[in-house]
Amino acid sequence: MSFDPVIRVSEVRKVFGLVPVLDDVSLEVRGGEAVALLGANGAGKTTLLKILATLVRPTRGTATIAGHDVARAPEAVRRLLGVVAHGAWVYDDLTARENLKFWATLGGLHVGADDVTAALAGVGLERAADARVRTFSAGMKRRLSLARAMLARPRVLLLDEPFAGLDQRAKKWLEERLETLKAAGAALLMVTHSFGRELGVADRLAILAGGRIALDTPRGSLGSDDVQRLYALHAEDVL
């Protein structure tokens, strides 16, 4: 694990109209580390992810990826990122292979046919490479989304409810893949409102409530019941 934070969020505030969604949020994630960001629906988890993904600008404060400011140097940040959104962000009328080629071109990635094939094989979709995505299950679409994110060999992976909509086999596969990415030194930030498999992958847990980080703690030996008690203590009283 790297000692220098790859993801650094410092006193970030985000206001939509007159409504504050994030209020002085600070959070760090190091290389080789996974942080699960817990919170209720509407807590601001996805907004924070969008700020880091350069899709939304913070109202105040700073956020950096590997030293690059997300607002001032978005292109440099995007070259380091892989994003797996809650929606799959894939095109149903394209094949799996065509989806990856399209996203690579859009992102300015210099990848060849072998790179695309390897990315699909890495997520177990090599046999469905030339099938239209409209025929895919939700789990297959999620795996294709992850293949797209991995095609750029990201230093940072941002995931929004990564295990949602997956069957048990796909959940096990994703859990193993995320552990592999951690071992390779990637920094992972997973936002969720569940107490499921994300907890097994996470090295740290952070709870977002009332627009602030209410708790940031190593996962250690905390089980699901322990996390639910911490969540009730630090989050539910502000809902």
**Secondary-structure element string:** EEEHEEHEHHHEHEHEEH
Number of helices: 8
**Taking strands numbered 1, 2, ... along the chain, how are they ordered across the largest sheet?**
6-7-8-3-9-10
The computed structural class is alpha/beta
Output mean pLDDT. Answer: 89
Total count of strands: 10
Measured between the Cα atoms of the first and last residue, the distance is 35 Å
Low-pLDDT stretches: none
- Main sheet properties: 6 strands, mixed
> Radius of gyration from the CA trace?
18 Å
| Shape assignment | globular
In percent, how much strand structure appears in the residues? Answer: 25-35%
* DSSP helix fraction: 25-40%
Which keywords apply here?
239 residues; alpha/beta; 6-stranded mixed β-sheet; 4-stranded antiparallel β-sheet; 8 helices; 10 strands; globular
Task: Give an overview in words.
Helices cover 33% and strands 27% of the residues. The chain contains eight helices and ten strands. The protein has helices at residues 45-52, 74-78, 96-106, 113-122, 138-150, 168-183, 198-201, 224-234; strands at residues 5-16, 19-30, 34-38, 60-65, 68-69, 81-84, 156-160, 187-192, 204-209, 212-218. The strands form two sheets. Strands 6-7-8-3-9-10 form a six-stranded mixed β-sheet, sandwiched between helices. Strands 2-1-4-5 form a four-stranded antiparallel β-sheet. Helix 3 (96-106) packs across helix 4. The longest helix has 16 residues, at 168-183.
